[in-house]
From TrEMBL:
<comment type="similarity">
    <text>Belongs to the D-isomer specific 2-hydroxyacid dehydrogenase family.</text>
</comment>
<keyword id="KW-0521">NADP</keyword>
<dbReference type="InterPro" id="IPR006139">
    <property type="entry name" value="D-isomer_2_OHA_DH_cat_dom"/>
</dbReference>
<feature type="domain" description="D-isomer specific 2-hydroxyacid dehydrogenase NAD-binding">
    <location>
        <begin position="111"/>
        <end position="283"/>
    </location>
</feature>
<dbReference type="GO" id="GO:0051287">
    <property type="term" value="F:NAD binding"/>
</dbReference>
<dbReference type="InterPro" id="IPR006140">
    <property type="entry name" value="D-isomer_DH_NAD-bd"/>
</dbReference>
<dbReference type="GO" id="GO:0016618">
    <property type="term" value="F:hydroxypyruvate reductase [NAD(P)H] activity"/>
</dbReference>
<keyword id="KW-0560">Oxidoreductase</keyword>
<dbReference type="Pfam" id="PF02826">
    <property type="entry name" value="2-Hacid_dh_C"/>
</dbReference>
<feature type="domain" description="D-isomer specific 2-hydroxyacid dehydrogenase catalytic">
    <location>
        <begin position="8"/>
        <end position="315"/>
    </location>
</feature>
<dbReference type="Pfam" id="PF00389">
    <property type="entry name" value="2-Hacid_dh"/>
</dbReference>
<dbReference type="GO" id="GO:0005829">
    <property type="term" value="C:cytosol"/>
</dbReference>
<dbReference type="InterPro" id="IPR050223">
    <property type="entry name" value="D-isomer_2-hydroxyacid_DH"/>
</dbReference>
<keyword id="KW-0520">NAD</keyword>
<dbReference type="InterPro" id="IPR036291">
    <property type="entry name" value="NAD(P)-bd_dom_sf"/>
</dbReference>
<protein>
    <submittedName>
        <fullName>Dihydrofolate reductase</fullName>
    </submittedName>
</protein>
<dbReference type="GO" id="GO:0030267">
    <property type="term" value="F:glyoxylate reductase (NADPH) activity"/>
</dbReference>
């Protein structure tokens, strides 16, 4: 029997162990498992004061409207572009995310994709695995990260974690963002200028309407045929048809991608490109980090019900 009378709607579950912890403390309603979601809500909607979801799933805006007493949304993930924050704030609904605990694994993934792309890891793996090495000798030379200019689009906490890894690799850092930051890196308030300056464009900004399709054909053209794109932010930031065309036509040299439009149904056009390294939105996908993210969801709920305060709120 849960110790609290608080009713929580589960739109997307977190880690199993942490779900058990929530079930022991609160009355959970598994909206995610309901076949008929409206019928499921009918008897409980007015009792729901809290909601749990993940960054990938978010919260449908029409669902928020059906929950008259909803006070708090605790989301598993740092990105919250799939939640209508303005509508929540207007209703006085507080929203929390799980920042910082994933910075290292996401930044490691960014560097992993950068090196895998510039050094052709997947091609090399295939060259050895398929027997081509023994038949045809060494694979084609690749290009070094050392001495390259890394243009970071979005120098937030994750962007800075990436920069701190790239500097000791001998890369020069530049960045684009709304505001110049108190850091000793090359700054461009013009994205086209940064792309022209950079050898590698690293996308680490938030998703959402403000950054939708920001990396378009003009930016890719400015980056140039020896340039590379790495994206660990959101697929929505890149104009995907423009990127696929740029990869196919040699407008840019290659890309390393962790995020895509319409996940998990990635555009098959990418699968046909030999000069792209693909990773299925798994930058934070380690047991250690996902457990830490889940613990932040549990702690935010605990703090909310105990004091009405969130540990990591976004509004
Ligand atoms: C997701 C992410 O949380 O944190 C984010 O914003 O995109 C990921 O870490 C993860 O894919 C689960 O939805």
């Amino acid at each position: 029997m849960p110790v609290s009378e608080s009713h929580i709607l589960v739109v997307s579950p977190i880690r199993p162990r942490h779900m058990d912890e929530l079930a022991a403390k609160y009355i959970l309603h598994r909206w995610d498992q309901a076949a008929d979601k409206d019928a499921f809500l009918a008897n409980i909607a007015d009792r729901i004061t809290a909601l749990v979801s993940t960054a990938g799933v978010g919260v449908p805006s029409d669902l928020i409207e059906k929950l008259p007493n909803l006070k708090v949304i605790t989301s598993f993930g740092v990105g919250y572009d799939a939640i209508d924050i303005a509508a929540c704030t207007a209703r006085g609904i507080r929203v929390s995310n799980t920042p910082d605990v994933l910075n290292d694994d996401v930044a490691d993934t960014a560097i992993m994709l950068l090196l895998a792309t510039l050094r052709n890891l997947v091609v090399g793996d295939q060259w050895a695995r398929s027997g081509q090495w023994s038949e045809n000798g060494a694979m084609a030379l690749t290009t070094s990260a050392r001495g390259k200019k890394l243009g970071i689009v979005g120098l937030g906490r994750i962007g800075q974690a990436i920069a701190s890894r790239a500097v000791p690799m001998g890369m020069e850092i530049g960045y684009f963002g709304r505001n110049q930051k108190p850091v000793d890196y090359h700054y461009d308030a013009d994205l086209i200028k940064l792309a022209d300056w950079a050898d590698v464009l690293m996308i680490s900004c938030p998703g959402g309407a403000a950054t939708k399709d920001m990396i378009n054909a003009d930016v890719l053209k400015a980056l140039g045929r020896r340039g590379y794109v790495v994206n660990i932010a959101r697929g929505s930031v890149i104009d995907e048809p423009a990127l696929i065309a740029a990869l196919k036509d040699g407008v840019i040299a290659g890309a390393g991608l962790d995020v895509f439009h319409n996940e998990p149904h990635m555009d098959r056009g990418f699968a046909k490109c030999a000069n792209v390294v693909l990773y299925p939105h798994h930058a934070s996908g380690t047991v250690e980090t996902r457990d830490a993210m889940a613990q932040m969801v549990v702690d935010n709920l605990q703090s909310w019900f105990a004091s009405g305060k969130l540990i990591s709120s976004v509004n």
